[in-house]
Write a structure and sequence with these properties.
Structural class of chain B: mainly alpha
Structural class of chain A: mainly alpha
CATH superfamily of chain B: MetI-like
Number of helices of chain B: 11
Number of strands of chain B: 0
Order of helices and strands of chain B: HHHHHHHHHHH
Strand content of chain A: under 5%
Radius of gyration of chain B: 23 Å
Mean pLDDT of chain B: 81
Largest sheet of chain A: none
Order of helices and strands of chain A: HHHHHHHHHHHHH
Low-confidence stretches of chain B: 1-10, 286-291
Strand content of chain B: under 5%
CATH architecture of chain B: Orthogonal Bundle
Number of helices of chain A: 13
CATH class of chain B: Mainly Alpha
Largest interface: A-B, 48 and 47 residues
Helix content of chain B: over 70%
CATH architecture of the largest domain in chain A: Orthogonal Bundle
Mean pLDDT of chain A: 83
Distance between the termini of chain A: 13 Å
Distance between the termini of chain B: 22 Å
Oligomer: heterodimer
Largest sheet of chain B: none
Number of domains of chain B: 1
Low-confidence stretches of chain A: none
Amino acid sequence: MYVIRRVGVFAFSVFAASVLVFTVMSILPGDPAQVMLGTQATPEAVDALRTELGLDRPLPVQYLEWASGAVRGDLGTSPFSGQDITPQIIDRLQVTIPLAVMAMALTVLISFPLGVYAAARHRRFGDNVVSIVSQLGLAVPAFWAGLLLVTVFAVGYRWFPASGFPGWDVSVFQSLKSLFLPAVSLAIVQSAIITRYVRSAVLETLREDYIRTARSKGLTRSAALWRHGLRNAAIPVLTILGLQFAALTAGTVVIESVFVLPGLGKMLLDGITRRDLPLVQGGAFTIAVLILGLNLAVDLTYRLIDPRVSEQ
Amino acid sequence: MTDRAASAETPPTERRRGRWRRLNLGLGLGIVLTVIAVALVSFVWTPFDPERIDASKRLLGAGEQGHLLGTDQFGRDLLSGIMVGARTALFVGILAVGIAVAIGIPIGGFAAARRGWVEDVVMRASDVVYAFPPVLLAILLVAAVSPGTGSAMVAIGIAYVPIVARVTRGAALSVFQLDFVSAARSYGRGNAYIFVRHVLPNIASVLIVQMTILFALAILAEAALSFLGIGTQPPTPSWGRSLRDAQTFLQLSPRLAIWPGVAIAVTVLGFNLLGDGLRDALDPRLEVRRT
């Protein structure tokens, strides 16, 4: 029952997101056709483009047309390149998704040990050091971290490329290498956030009765934490990881521009500067669906890890 | 029991915790006041004219010819530019948070007062907006209108409306259940009056903390938008914009990429510390839950 309801909420959210993306792009001031063609365009050319884009029809009709295409996986054609938008997006996702996943993996690798360590050293020196470091991490803009990493590891040491992406079919290793620094830039900020959640989640479980029971049967503090604490602490952390994935996706938009990666974010920005509205609509909608889908996945996994959730 | 007796019984770790908290608040307040002071001073004095272009002084190092942090690719003084950039950052923060609060508080209050389907609709709508990361939403809005500080501020403000609405609703819900609200209802006060007069003062501390954190986020968002070239436009100085320009000269002069970033990070750190400090100071109940 819960699963059906949750999927229903997901479907509704996707619908609402599509309306939102569509209206933001359509209702705001300015005639898209005029904007796309610039001030030099003749009125005839503008009218022709308006007809081509279907802008002369009522808004709900335009929306239905676009949405029925989107349901079938067809996000329309870019008026600039004349190419279908969906294949372009799939192409771009091959950079953005590995980048986001890599950043998330690094985030987990950094923040879990740090958070658990801070909780274990609660209110002692180590805990304070971790708080200071995460407070600093929160204040650093990811794109600035990216610039500094490029300065040191690409311009200085030349260990990693400063920009560009060779493509998976050219070289998997080189591709991973060019995603590494961007992923680290994103992971710095995310780790600062997640470390705090891991720390408080572990602290929370350390106060539970079953930890006391585990200690009383002779387990050391750290053994009790490993055997019983971490699995329980993982539940709230998983939720936050899901939510933070949304922030991470937004972060890729900016980071892709620092490292000139041909991802979805770069496509969005290029679309914006060229005023390619169908492309921007498609890109933004894709990101929204990704995020909503991820939140759905998190909510459903949640119940697998913790059977208590279904009983409640 | 006197206060002194209470403090004598407080374990040493608790006392250290107290100092730590005051340190957050003090340091945060100190940084924020310094940034405000720098922004104000920049109106009447900067070491050099921040917009003056001088080809003979291109890319000077730190300290050369009286330029404390050196000059950029056009020979403009870096320190002066950063000082003036503080204005833009604070201005964006004030307006973006102002917009978020002006729209978000009434929406959240309305949802909490009316309950039922009104609340459901408002909250589901805010969930959908919430699914869009604020920076992405701001990018879309800026794209739909036109790049510039003005649209960046409005966009960031609108993107934060759901956050403010949620926090307001969450905090106001319990206050609406209290006896003094029923009392006010019984002598015929309307929802709007009750919200402003009785509920708002009781949730002010939560909102102030939230606003401080949002201020930090707004500064980060403006920096990101300006870095992408769709936020603040030249000649208005902006830290994010300076970093965008610095990217071109990374090989030649990596120093240019350092100071504007430090300015952003320190300012954001200040507001975050202030927010954390205020939360601890304004809400003693939170401390009980934490310990």
